């Protein structure tokens, strides 16, 4: 029976994807399929699922997946036929098979070393090789003629899996080893075409899509390329596009692995951080407890204890103590606390370590010492900020080469909004960022470290704060503006903004302030023609057109009209 | 645009102040100090124009009426500016607050009687007119006073102002309000001794 000969039993309890070859792909599946072995129904295979892959068909039986499932190599299929079904007859796909299954190492259906002389007698396939001497049609698996022993010409396209096999021994000897196929072969001789076929009966439909896929798979002949593709991985390494792709893939894999490792570390840290903080607090409490009963008068600190007072470091990576930004005040606290410790050096070391880790020590006492240190700290920060603003090369920005050749934030502009300064400074620092509260505390120290002094100014209308050089101070700007208006006449906000090279919003703020001071006045304009502006009132600018600013024509005005 | 401003004389002979040709004058200034000066000057301008033209009533709508009797001061076509109604209302409110005008009728804020003379000044004008025209000790209706056959300074004087002026005279015993058949009347008295 063809089914027995052409198929291989598989363990259907294993999922099909696990049964596939390396380069084999499942294309489609259809349940509710029965198998006809030749013209008759195969009793054992009447309800199962059929899977089509690039290489094979799998039949997995529903009732007895272990015993009744089989796989079937598509290579055996000579042609196919589709029958759409009629009334109670279900749709069928008929697979006509090649007269003799070519031996495949993958399937192992037939013993590889079995010569099969009877195939010669069928004589109907092109696979057989004619002997050059006696013209006997030999099996393509043979190297020498079965009759005369002449070496046979090889068909180049035929893979010969049994190549290392020694030249065939005498036919009887082989046959005696494997008698089973012989019987089949003898059957085969009598096989009509219709006996060499398998039918798939689609009891639950799905025949058409399945047939389409099956046809495509047969046309694709994936089993032929398999032989070529398999050795490729070892031989083509590092050559051509595939080599490049492979190396990229490898790199990606390596980095993926590294990343995963790193993330695992991070996760571990996240889990453990609480414990670490607790430990630190505990340590600190103990230190405090030890030191409390033994107050000692002020001790002069080692130089480490006043971190910010160290002169700006030219090194690309400033000393952590000096640059620890937010943690430095806490460090100062630690220092202050450690004054009273019996072994001040050790305690100082522990606490400064804790502070450097950024661990909070809320219960450390606040002392005059700390205030002094804080003032130093702010002054140092002000000095650094001055460097960022003026580009004089002080501060980490210049040190780290991020200062762009000493170009400060305020080199070109006389006035900068506070948020921009804060962002720019922290960008220049890169690490140990300054919180806004500290930033605001630093600002009052700024004028003494900048030349010309840079001061902060807050506009009352909007609350916007800016840093500005003297020319943009309240009085200086007002007098400059009045001079401008006197010289060139009334100007709009935008024109003033262009003149001063300032943002329009900022210009508006400054103009409003000058107006409040009574140095200038405004003209809404267009009142004579614009009827829509009536409802808006006169206090808001731009009601009837663009606001133009005038030198204050009201100030010092003396009545010169009709008495 | 030049910022030097000059007074302008209207065809009627009224001299507009130089500030009237400054566009900011027609804008309500946000700055308190500027606004105060502007409002004071508006008040003065309106009153002096009213005196010149003998106008007694000012409405906020006058700001929007082209060609009205107030057009010459409330707008300046030479600089294409005019005062806006809300701005004018603010000026009027200031005038009322400083007793230079009174809302008439009361309980609204869009129309005022202008006191370009105070009721006391009007009282004096009225008494002088009465004595100079020999109407002392005679009874006169209000109508006779505000629409005399011979034009007088009191022509077209709004009755509320007239009433206030008479009340001032009555207080100093120089006039007496008398009910007459068709409304109210007044008898001017000779000045009491010592006055």
UniProtKB/TrEMBL annotation, chain A:
The keyword Plastid does not apply. The keyword Protein transport applies. Residues 181-191 have a biased composition (Acidic residues). Pfam families: EAP30, Vps36_ESCRT-II. Keywords: Cytoplasm, Endosome, Protein transport, Transport. Residues 156-169, 309-319 have a biased composition (Pro residues). Component of the endosomal sorting complex required for transport II (ESCRT-II). Component of the ESCRT-II complex (endosomal sorting complex required for transport II), which is required for multivesicular body (MVB) formation and sorting of endosomal cargo proteins into MVBs. Belongs to the VPS36 family. This is Vacuolar protein-sorting-associated protein 36.
TrEMBL record, chain B:
Belongs to the VPS25 family. GO terms for biological process: protein transport to vacuole involved in ubiquitin-dependent protein catabolic process via the multivesicular body sorting pathway. It comes from the Eukaryota. Keywords: Protein transport, Transport. GO terms for cellular component: ESCRT II complex. The keyword Transport applies. The keyword Protein transport applies. It comes from Ganoderma sinense ZZ0214-1. GO terms for molecular function: protein homodimerization activity; structural molecule activity. Pfam families: ESCRT-II. Coiled coil: none annotated. This is ESCRT-II complex vps25 subunit.
């Amino acid at each position: 029976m063809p089914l027995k000969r052409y198929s291989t039993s598989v363990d259907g309890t294993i999922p099909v994807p696990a049964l596939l070859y390396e380069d084999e792909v499942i294309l489609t599946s259809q349940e509710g399929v029965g198998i006809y072995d030749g013209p008759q129904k195969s009793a054992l295979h009447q309800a199962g699922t059929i899977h089509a892959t690039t290489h094979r068909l799998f039949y997995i039986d529903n009732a007895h997946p272990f015993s009744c499932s089989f796989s079937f190599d598509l290579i055996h299929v000579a042609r196919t036929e589709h029958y759409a079904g009629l009334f109670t007859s279900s749709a069928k796909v008929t697979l006509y098979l090649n007269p003799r299954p070519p031996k495949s190492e993958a399937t192992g259906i037939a013993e590889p070393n079995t010569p099969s002389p009877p195939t010669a007698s069928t004589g109907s396939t092109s696979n057989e090789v004619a002997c050059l001497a006696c013209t006997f049609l030999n099996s393509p698996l043979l190297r020498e003629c079965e009759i005369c022993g002449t070496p046979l010409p090889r068909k180049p396209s035929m893979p010969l899996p049994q190549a290392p096999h020694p030249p065939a021994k005498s036919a009887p000897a082989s046959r005696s080893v494997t008698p089973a196929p012989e019987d089949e072969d003898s059957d085969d001789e009598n096989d009509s075409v219709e006996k060499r076929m398998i039918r798939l009966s689609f009891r639950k439909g799905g025949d058409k899509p399945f047939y389409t896929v099956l046809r495509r798979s047969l046309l694709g002949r994936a089993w032929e390329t398999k032989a070529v593709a398999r050795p490729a991985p070892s031989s083509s390494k590092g050559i051509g596009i595939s080599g490049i792709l492979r190396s990229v893939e490898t790199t990606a894999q390596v980095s993926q692995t590294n990343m995963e490792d790193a993330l695992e570390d991070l996760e571990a840290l996240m889990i453990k951080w609480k414990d670490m903080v607790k430990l630190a607090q505990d340590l600190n409490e103990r230190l405090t407890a030890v030191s409390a009963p033994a107050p000692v008068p002020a001790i002069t600190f080692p130089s480490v204890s006043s971190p910010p007072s160290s002169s700006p470091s030219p090194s690309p990576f400033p000393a952590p103590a000096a640059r620890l930004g937010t943690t430095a005040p806490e460090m100062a606290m630690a220092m202050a606390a450690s004054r009273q410790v019996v072994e001040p050096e050790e305690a100082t070391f522990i606490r400064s370590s804790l502070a450097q880790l950024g661990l909070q020590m809320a219960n450390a006492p606040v002392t005059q010492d700390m205030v002094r240190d804080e003032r130093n700290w702010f002054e140092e920060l002000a000095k650094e900020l001055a460097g960022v603003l003026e580009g004089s090369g002080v501060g980490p920005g210049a040190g780290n080469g991020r200062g762009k050749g000493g170009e400060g934030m305020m080199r070109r502009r006389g006035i900068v909004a506070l948020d921009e300064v804060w962002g720019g400074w922290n960008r220049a620092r890169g690490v140990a960022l300054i919180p806004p509260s500290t930033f605001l505390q630093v600002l009052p120290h700024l004028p003494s470290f900048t030349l010309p002094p840079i001061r902060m100014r807050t506009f009352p209308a909007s609350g916007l704060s800016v840093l500005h050089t003297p020319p943009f101070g309240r009085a200086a700007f007002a007098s400059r503006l009045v001079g401008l208006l006197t010289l060139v006449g009334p100007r709009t906000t935008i024109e003033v903004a262009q003149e001063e090279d300032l943002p329009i919003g900022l210009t508006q703020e400054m103009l409003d302030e000058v107006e409040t001071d009574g140095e200038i006045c405004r003209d809404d304009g267009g009142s004579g023609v614009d009827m829509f502006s009536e409802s808006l009132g006169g206090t808001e600018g731009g009601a009837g057109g663009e606001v133009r600013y005038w030198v204050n024509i009201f100030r010092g005005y003396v009545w010169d009209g009709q008495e | 645009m030049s910022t030097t401003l000059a007074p302008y004389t209207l065809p009627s002979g009224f001299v507009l102040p130089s500030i009237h040709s400054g566009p900011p004058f027609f804008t309500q200034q946000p700055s308190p100090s500027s606004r105060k000066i502007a409002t004071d000057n508006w008040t003065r301008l309106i009153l002096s124009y009213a005196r010149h033209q003998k106008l007694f009533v000012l409405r906020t709508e006058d700001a929007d009426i082209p060609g009205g009797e107030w057009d010459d001061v409330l707008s300046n076509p030479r600089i294409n500016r005019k005062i806006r109604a809300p701005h004018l209302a603010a000026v009027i409110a200031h005038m009322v607050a400083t007793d230079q005008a009174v809302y008439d009728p009361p309980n609204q804020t869009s129309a005022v009687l202008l006191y370009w003379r105070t009721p006391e000044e009007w009282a004096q004008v009225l008494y002088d007119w009465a004595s100079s025209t020999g109407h002392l000790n005679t009874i006169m209706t209000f109508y006779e006073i505000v629409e005399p056959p011979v034009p007088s300074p009191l022509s077209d004087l709004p009755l509320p102002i007239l009433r206030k002026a008479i009340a001032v005279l009555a207080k100093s015993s120089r006039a007496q309000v008398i009910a007459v058949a068709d409304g109210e009347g007044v008898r001017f008295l000779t000045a009491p001794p010592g006055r």
